Write the structure tokens for this entry.
Amino acid sequence: METRNTEIADLFKKTADFLEIAGTNPFRVRAYRNAARTIKSLARSITDLLTEDPDLTRLSGIGKELDDKIKEIIRTGKLGKLEELEERVPAGLHRVLKVPGLGPRKVKALYDKLSIRNIEDLRREAREGRIRELAGFGQKTENRILRDVDRLDSNEKRTLWITAENIAGSLREHLGFDLSNRDLIVTGSFRRRKETVRDLDVLVASRDSKAIMERFVNFDQIDRVLANGHTRASILLRSGLQVDLRVVELSCLGAALHYFTGSQAHNIAIRRLGRQKGLKINEYGVFKGDRRIAGQAEEEIFTSVGLPYIEPELREDSGEIQAAREKRLPALIALNDIRGDLHCHTDDSDGRNSLEEMVRAAETKGYEYIAVTNHTGSLKIARGLKAADVRHLIKKIDRLNQRLSHLVVLKSMEVDILKDGELDLPNDILEELDFTVCSIHSHFGLSRAEQTERILRAMDNPYFNILGHPTGRLLNRRPAYRVDLDRLITAAAERGCFLELNAHPERLDIDDVHCRSAKDKGVRVAISTDAHGISDLDFMRLGVAQARRGWLEPQDVLNTRGLDQLMKLFKRS
DNA sequence: GCCGTTTTCGGCCCGACTGTTTTCAGTCG
């Protein structure tokens, strides 16, 4: 499914960029971008939706024209409109648009006046001093182009959420706020809990913006200052992360919090609702004419447009506003709904802590159960266990369980799915386990069809319970292997299997879109840490955050269940 | 190009900051 939806979204995004350079009406450009976002965040494949109802104008932001264009892409794999644009606008300008400070108007001017058609042209003209001669350009712009033109790729780098959290902690310390002080809030995609962030949006409520700004631009991790105004400043850190600071008065904090949390699309949708009610909404508050009627608390923004409060994780304009209006917002899962961890390693395979240490850590968390899921034999690099070792470990866990009073250690394994879809342990051993997590650790290069068949075959084994880290991606390091996840979710629903949401900060696998997809098809998700040491058990909060982005409620999640119910769910038949 | 409890045409979120300008366009979020 991903390919089709992503393909359509990418073509629309690209069309928007080219239309922008061509100088089209900006609202038309926005229509393409909105449609791209809508399609990308769909929980189901477009082709699926089409078989149910050929009219796609029921999707928000898709009208008659774009409905036709989607069908054109599905039919031909191409978009005529884009090809037509590419004849008028050089393809290389797409990349020139990525240079910070160069928007569509400036790019068009560079093309019209200096015939700049790509990054190489841009670099040459800047070096030769011709850009500063243009009307509307100057020395500073030229210098900036020369500085930034060679690091476009690092601009596109995104920072892991957990890394951003660390940086935010250092910044908070530097600015002199203690962690419990509610007056420094990290907003933006960080607050929406996106798995990676491009920048950090920091909001401070204070009267004394000058002192804070001054300290901010002297942060020790800084590479350079990008902007520095009265209430707003931006810095680039050496790590490549951009940090934007905004200082507002306490009386505006709620409105500013809503505004800076975004997403931009969500804000636009909320402000449009405001306009329909004759209100103006900005970062300072909600206004009726000149009179400010709300803005101190974030809830007031929603109340003013007649909606209940919407959690930050849902604010992507992907159906949350309609759900709010119809009073069917999900009651999102929270960390304290979690009753155990279903994927942990010990030093019996590649973990850093012993079984006893992991169990004690789980007890400290107040868990009712923890599953020990070591690797199986074919994964030699992780010192995977052979059948005899597994039997030995099972006995060890049985003995341990007799001593424990508040917590049960579940006997499990992270079973390798072999190339042919066989599981890496014989069924007579699998039968002795409480359940299994089955994962792919090899042959990532199979074709989409082969990889899908491989996993489907594994799922046919009656002892297959949870599909571990279903796409195998490592954020910023390794793309997902090619697989038809939509089909796997359907298959899991049919067979009574489950999907893991691996909470490791580099995995967060499955993503938010597929959480929604699983929920829609009635497949429950196990939020698991894949801990290789006691400190990793804390990754659970990241998994829960991702689940919230995926609209999951406690009942959609496997490990919110008590032990008895959990064991019943693991019995396939 | 989308959209409609005021609309099928005429709107479309809103403001800060920079650089290039002498009052503002372009970019960004």
